[in-house]
Specification:
Length: 293
């Protein structure tokens, strides 16, 4: 079969200001509802929503990915890997009511960009044009990664998303945000101390903590440190594999290098499978701080 083509549909009636308004509405709601998940807030789970909307992509046939907004369908929501994302979708519901003209794919990716920036991460360029697609284009369950695996699995998984080693390591650095929840994934605990600020702490902790592989309360294996931090097996694979380790060391020593790589491969992740016409606009949103809001 011919590969699927997804062409960005740029809405000529909408300008940068319209999207910045949505960004601001999301950012203000993150700031307002700061008590969520033990005062971590909604930022991390909005990043996870954008990533899981995009992480179904398969470069071999150009299926999956963020374009069709298929995360709005039960079939995709019911993938075990998406457990817990109902909270992020519920967060977005009033935003969709207020801005009914935006597609689900655009909203969920814009939300992830907003969260990264509002949590002091790098500026991530964002482009509109995703179009809600019918239910029968929903990718089958099982395309999102399984944490109980080592470096070979990680490398193969990211190859399907068209990501090289440096991009794979940078993307995993998003685990500076948020935490694992027993009731969602069967894993338990945060990756570090600053769960709602975007930093290179994930890499620093990978290298500097005393990690011990043990079985958690749900019977799953995870690495734990005396400070109460955790690592998934797929995270720890980044220090076991020599090619990955070199990049982990670079990002631990140079937060700027991590931010630069993350900004570019996060945009790439959110846009995988989409063709943008030459005249399609690229937006860089201002943070609330920069607008004195
Ligand atoms: Zn995650 N991730 N992830 N990830 N992730 C979790 C949570 C978060 C993997 C994984 O199994 C898990 C990327 C890659 C990979 C975030 C962002 C990104 C959780 C915990 C698991 C189990 C879910 C829970 O229990 O609530 C695996 C195996 C990955 C690759 C091999 C990439 C890439 C990400 C973004 C760029 C974020 C922000 C969270 C925290 C969510 C929260 O609610 O706090």
């Amino acid at each position: 079969a011919a590969p699927v083509v997804h062409i960005a549909a740029v809405n000529k009636d909408r300008s940068f200001d319209d999207y910045q308004r949505i960004y601001n509405t999301i950012a203000e709601k993150i700031r307002e509802e700061d008590e969520y998940d033990g005062y971590i807030g909604y930022g991390p789970i909005l990043v996870r929503l954008g990533w899981h909307s995009s992480g179904t992509y398969d470069k071999n046939d150009n299926t999956g990915g963020s374009y069709g907004g298929t995360m709005r369908f039960k079939l995709e929501q019911s993938d075990g890997a998406n457990n817990g994302l109902g909270n992020a979708r519920a967060f977005m519901e009033p935003i969709l009511k207020e801005f009914p003209w935006i597609s689900h794919g655009d909203l969920y990716t814009l939300g992830a960009v907003c969260a990264v920036q509002e949590l002091q991460g790098p500026k991530v360029k964002w482009r509109p044009g995703r179009v809600d697609m019918p239910e029968d284009t929903t990718p089958k369950n099982g395309r999102l990664p399984d944490a109980a695996n080592g470096a070979d699995y990680v490398r193969n998984f990211y190859a399907r998303l068209n990501m090289n080693d440096r991009e794979a390591v940078a993307l995993t650095g998003a685990h500076c945000l948020g935490r694992t929840h027993l009731k969602n994934s069967g894993f338990d605990g945060p990756w570090g101390a600053a769960s709602n600020s975007f930093t290179n702490e994930f890499f620093v902790n990978l290298l500097n903590e005393q990690w011990k592989l043990q079985k958690n309360k749900a019977g799953n294996m995870q690495y734990d440190s005396p400070k109460g931090y955790m690592m998934l097996e797929t995270d720890y694979a980044l220090v076991q594999d020599p090619a990955y380790l070199k990049i982990v060391k670079e990002f631990a020593n140079n937060e700027g290098a991590f931010f630069k790589e993350f900004a570019s491969c996060f945009q790439k992740l959110l846009e995988n499978g989409i063709d943008y016409p030459k005249d399609a606009p690229t937006y860089v949103f201002k943070t609330l701080d920069e607008q004195d809001l």
